[in-house]
Specification:
The chain is mainly α. Among the domains are: about 210 residues, Serine Threonine Protein Phosphatase 5, Tetratricopeptide repeat, CATH 1.25.40.890; about 130 residues, no CATH class. Helix 4 packs antiparallel against helix 8, helix 10 runs antiparallel to helix 11 and helix 11 runs antiparallel to helix 12. The longest helix is centred in the N-terminal third of the chain and has 28 residues.
């Protein structure tokens, strides 16, 4: 048993939660406990809270695959150049699956959080014991955190931020029919929730049974992000600075970026908000069942036993391939079996983020990278993130199939460092913060032994190789937009890349620019697992074109189809429009 929270997830009370559904209002389930009979003790409240955590692990909350297919980060799999993926093509509408499923998952979490808040409010005034009052407050603070987080996701995802607000538990059918609220009111609402969580959650949990619960640092990170999204840089910086400098949190970058993407070193010092998954429970359930405690993201991303439904985009692969390593850092040098000392094939960040066929220094599914996957159908790289490439030879080795125990790190310190750097230069408008911003960017880069920005003068890493450039606020912001954030955080968190592109106002232009970039794949000779010479045809991505080689281009359709009015936010889902008569 890894953590008791996982045990409770497996056994959790499944609270009522689907908005816009009236069937359960008309029929009584004799097997369900009523709210009056359930919310009697703090143990009841904690059990109800676990159902909120259970809602957070629903894959539809983050919608990782298609949130990134909307951005410039991915190709939706199965061989270029043909795809019917409506999110990559930007042809989705209110009836599309992702917005409907995401909406349902988020409001289900909100409904469960409201039950906890209401249940604890009834209990908290009855305690004379300060310890019970404190415990009740912390339980309530966790529920407020998740309600605030789910509304933050709704606000940043749907209908320009205008969505219904539920701050109560519906008691009758009409209670479910709430109108759209002004985006500013929604924003104020979720920030109030997060402020309550920030003030009342612990800085860290000390008992092993509580590891994985949310903290004040997570609340501060989400608050800072919400202010960054509206370009309130001073306010955002206040929260980010607290996350970075407050010793009570104890956050630090992990020694290796790879510590954040596999089953090894979960809940580590860099992790601020993390979804816990486990293979230890519920093996008898359908892997997609809501009450399951394992993940299916490994199958979505993996080409080895999985569906390879999300692949890195061409420009991103090329950017990873061209990351400049610090020639003064010994981590960038390896010694071959014949005693030859050479630089790594690719940077540490690249090798832990994506699999490339000609990466000589990182195994892939317990083989060499070229042996580990097919690299065919113009697939010149695969994401390592969310896959078990380091512990099995095939995702199907994990039994039962369609399961993974890899925790999803939703917010980590590197993201906060880079957002804080953005606040210091005020989005590229304030030169006064350039040197300090470079410091935080360079901390992220140094962790992966990359060449640092600027000069060694006043650098924390004076012996490291620096690019010697004199950065302005504008050029440093360009670096954050097109290099540091996408390469450090690719396919992580809640729609990080798409939300970044939208708030920077670059989405349409980005698709247009990328649709003009052409690539082809060079052939790669390698030694097969049988020791015989073999070739990965067209597997090494190369910019430009070459006679007789297949030309590859991304985002041609997105460049034509994307419009701010139709695609910058998910629309109100048709399921809500049909079931809620007060929304026009």
């Amino acid at each position: 048993m890894r953590y008791s929270i996982l045990k409770h997830l497996a056994l959790s009370l499944l609270l009522v939660g689907t908005l816009g559904c009236s069937d359960f209002l008309e029929e009584t389930n004799p097997n369900e406990m009523s709210t009056d009979s359930f919310w009697k003790t703090l143990d009841d409240a904690d059990t109800g809270l676990i159902a909120v955590y259970n809602a957070f692990k629903n894959n539809n909350v983050l919608s990782t695959a298609d949130e990134y297919n909307r951005s410039d980060m991915t190709w939706p799999g199965w061989g270029r150049p043909n795809t019917s993926n409506e999110y990559y093509l930007h042809t989705f509408n209110s009836g599309s699956g992702v917005p409907n499923n995401k909406w349902d998952a988020l409001y289900k979490g909100i409904f469960r959080a409201n039950q906890v808040i209401e249940g604890v409010d009834k209990l908290i005034g009855t305690f004379s014991d300060p310890a019970k009052t404190k415990r009740a407050t912390v339980i309530k603070a966790q529920a407020h955190f998740f309600r605030g987080l789910f509304y933050h996701y709704l606000h940043s995802s749907f209908n320009n931020g205008s969505v219904p607000i539920f701050d109560f538990v519906p008691q009758n059918e009409s209670d479910f029919y709430q109108p759209l609220q002004d985006a500013k009111k929604v924003q104020d609402f979720f920030r109030t929730d997060l402020e309550y969580a920030y003030s009342n959650l612990p800085a860290k949990w000390t008992e092993r049974k509580d590891l994985g619960r949310v903290t004040a640092g997570a609340a501060a990170s989400v608050l800072g992000t919400s202010y960054l999204y509206e370009k309130d840089y001073p306010k955002a910086a206040t929260y980010f600075k607290d996350v970075i400098e407050n010793p009570l949190y104890g956050y630090a970058l992990t020694p290796s970026i790879g510590d954040n993407f596999t089953t090894r070193r979960e809940l580590n010092e860099e992790s601020i908000l993390e979804i816990n998954y486990s293979l230890a429970f519920k093996a008898e359930l359908n892997p997609y069942a809501e009450e399951n405690v394992s993940s299916t993201l490994n199958y979505t991303f993996s080409p080895v036993g999985g569906f390879r439904a999300v692949l890195p985009s061409l420009w991103l692969i090329n950017a990873y391939k061209n990351e400049v390593m610090d020639k003064n850092d010994p981590r960038n040098f390896v010694t071959d079996k014949d005693g030859t000392r050479r630089m790594r094939s690719y940077s540490l960040r690249t090798s832990h983020s994506i699999a490339l066929p000609d990466d000589l220094d990182q195994t892939y599914y317990l083989k060499t990278s070229a042996q580990g996957a097919a690299y065919n159908n113009a697939e010149t790289a695969y994401y390592r993130k969310y896959t078990n490439w380091d512990i099995v030879s095939n995702e199907k080795d994990i039994l039962p199939n369609l399961r993974s125990g890899i925790n999803v790190r939703v917010i980590r310190l590197a993201d906060v460092y880079l957002m804080y750097a953005e606040t210091l230069i005020k989005g590229g408008t304030d030169a006064a913060g350039v040197q300090e911003a470079q410091k935080y960017i360079n901390r992220v880069r140094h962790r992966s032994a990359l060449q640092l920005l600027g000069t060694s003068a006043n650098s924390e890493f004076a012996s490291a190789d620096h690019d010697g450039k004199a950065y302005t606020a504008t050029s440093l912001m360009q670096h954050l937009m097109y290099v540091e954030r996408p390469l450090e955080l690719s396919v992580e968190g809640h729609a990080i890349r798409f939300l970044d592109m939208r708030r920077w106002g670059i989405t349409k232009q980005r698709f247009q620019d990328l649709s003009k970039q052409k690539y082809y794949g060079e052939n790669l000779p390698f030694v097969g697992v049988d020791g015989k010479p073999a070739t990965r045809w067209g597997s090494v991505l190369t910019p430009g074109t070459k006679a007789t080689y297949k030309e590859m281009v991304d985002y041609t359709q997105a460049a034509q189809n994307y419009t701010e009015s139709a695609h910058a936010y998910w629309p109100i889902p048709s399921s809500e429009l049909i079931s809620n008569p007060v929304i026009k």
